[in-house]
Amino acid sequence: MRRATKGASLGGWIVLLACAGASMGCAAPMLSVPRVSDADAAKESPQTREAVSLAPQAVARADEQRELAKKALKEGDDTAATLFADRAIAAYEHAFVLARLARAIHARDEAESALAIASARARELAASRAQVEAEGEELEKRLAVARDAQPLVAVGAAGDGKREGARVVAARALTMEARLLCGSARLVASDDATLKAIADVEKDVAGVESQLETRPHPAPIDAAARVRARCLDRLTAARRTSQGATDGDTLLAELSASGGLDPARDERGVVVTLRDLFDGAGLAASAQDKVAELGRVAAAHPDLGVQVVVNDAAPPTKADEALDAKHADAVVTALVRAGATVGHVKSELAGVRAPVVDPGDAAHRGRNARVDVVFVTR
Amino acid sequence: MTTLALGDDRTTTASSIDELDRDTVHKDAIAANVKRAKEAVERAIRLRAAGDEGHARLADGLAREEAEGALDLARAIDAEKAASEAQQAATDAGVTGDRERALLEEGIARNGRLRAELDELTHPRSETTRSATTDAGAKTSAKPSVTADGGAR
Fold first, then answer.
1. Contact criterion met (CB < 8 Å) for B58 and A105
2. A94 and B1 in contact by Cβ < 8 A?
3. Would you say residue B117 lies in a domain?
4. Domain range holding B117?
5. What is the DSSP letter of A186?
6. Contact (Cβ atoms closer than 8 angstroms) between residue A187 and residue A306
7. What distance in Å separates the CA atoms of residue A63 and residue B143, rounded to the nearest whole number?
8. What pLDDT, in 10s, does the model give residues A34-93?
């Protein structure tokens, strides 16, 4: 076993020349097998010092190989010395890799632990935030009701007939809104006490409607605003006592995505406005698909109430009112046929009391003729 | 982690080198180790061919050390990557938590303001008290619950 490698011999001569040039004493092993010196250098490297604490067994094994290299060198077996030294160098490098591995596993475990803690904390905070936001929405609703219930600035005698006329129109609109809000409340009410409270408010709504019919002047605008606020309050209360799975925003997104429906939000829920629906007393062929689509939406969300509101462009005659009732029935029937639950759909006839454009504007008041399909959220 | 034995290393080394040759993910990182392992294998073959079985076994051991070092290097790289990803995820979760906390505190403060306004509308006070609360907002509200809820934790 006395065959040194070519590389090792060449390296030895370089070391010999270097030692001679420096006129300094060089250890005999360096002259013949420089890999042994390399192993000594590897032993003293910062990487090995780092590995001592994290991979002590691997370092001990490298030390053993290094000692065997020195022993072989002393015994004159340069080939064995080179091989043992190479093994020692590889083992020191391996020890450093094992130290890296141990350090990385420790860091990963710590990070995973920190991740679990941070994720749990974030979830807790998100849940608390959702609760606070829900409380905030509830407060907003109560505040809206409280604001509406505030006494209005006293309205004096009419300055002129035109202003008084406008006040009567506004009072009629507010009363109609009150009726629609109370109607919505009925659709989502889940207990007798709530229904009774709604009925009490509806009596007052009927009283204001009666006043508007028989003694419209001075316009009962304050009374109309108050019954509207009370109906909104009943709707909010009805929602508190009932549970619904469908969120208004989700429904709005769903209806928007279906295209062509142009849904909008109001206090009752999500409103889809339809025009040019009828041919005679029934639905026109061109409108049946659109109404059926809304019926399918109602079927997919059985927790929602559906309010069908028929509006006119001009004040309806008795015959017009009868036709409006047939139109409402046609829409309700189509919705139910498409899957809406019978007891969850209710129609209302608004006449000209809920206009979207000024009824006095002859050029545009045709837009007031429409059917609003309202998905009342709980 | 692997252990080194001085027995017959050739089978283990051949299997390790096969595994390393198939590793495309860490190819660059382990290239030097794999090259040295293969050189040691060649060295053992030459020594064995020359009838020098003793030195050949030492070269076998060297090849095994290099191959197993390469395998552990690949594992260390994977573990370092996993640690880095977990640290990043923990940082992200911390940022999410901070954002949730800020939104929560904002929501609590908002609810406090809403309660104060609701209280003012539903239980109006005398004019002198009203003017004081109007200027000061929620902080002078008479209801203890308002300030308790409005103040962030």
1. no
2. no
3. yes
4. 10-150
5. H
6. yes
7. 77
8. 899 999 999 999 999 999 999 999 999 999 999 999 999 999 999 999 999 999 999 999
Q: Can you tell me the ipTM of this complex?
A: 0.71
- From A135, A231, A230, select the one nearest A181 (Cα to Cα): A231
> A6-22 and A34-44 are packed helices; what angle lies between their axes, rounded to 10 degrees?
80
Helices B53-122 and A78-149, axial angle in degrees (round to 10):
10
Distances (CA, A) of A370 to A176, A266, A298: 15, 17, 20
* Lookup: tokens for A184: 């919505």
Question: What is the DSSP secondary-structure string of A29-87?
Answer: HHHH-HHHHHHHHHHHSHHHHHHHHH-HHHHHHHHHHHHHHHHHHHTT-HHHHHHHHHH
Q: E strand or H helix at A287, and its extent?
A: helix A285-300
| Beta-sheet pairing, A282-283 with A278-279 | antiparallel
With respect to residue B2, please indicate whether it lies within any of the assigned structural domains. Answer: no
Q: Which residues of B131-152 are buried (b: 16+ CB within 10 A; e: fewer)?
A: eebeeeebeebeeeebbebbee
pTM score of the predicted model: 0.49
DSSP letters of B42-109? HHHHHHHHTT-HHHHHHHHHHHHHHHHHHHHHHHHHHHHHHHHHHHHHHHHHHHHHHHHHHHHHHHHH
Q: Spell out which residues of chain B touch residue A146, defining contact as CB-CB under 8 Å.
A: 118, 121-122
Residue B116 included in any domain: yes
Q: Report how far apart the first and last C-alpha atoms of chain A are (Å, whole number).
A: 92
Omega of the bond leading into A218 within 30 degrees of 0 (cis) = yes
In the stretch 4-63 of chain A, residues with CB closer than 8 A to chain B read: 61
CB A212 within 8 A of CB A164: no
Domain count, chain B: 1
Give a yes or no: residue B98 inside a domain.
yes
The reported pLDDT for the residue numbered B125 is 63
| pLDDT tens by residue, B105-142 | 999 999 999 999 998 888 876 544 444 444 444 443 33
CB B145 within 8 A of CB B114: no
Q: How far apart are CA A275 and CA A371, in angstroms?
A: 6
Phi and psi angles of residue A24, each rounded to the nearest 5 degrees, phi first: -125, 160
Smallest Cα distance from B114 to chain A, Å: 6
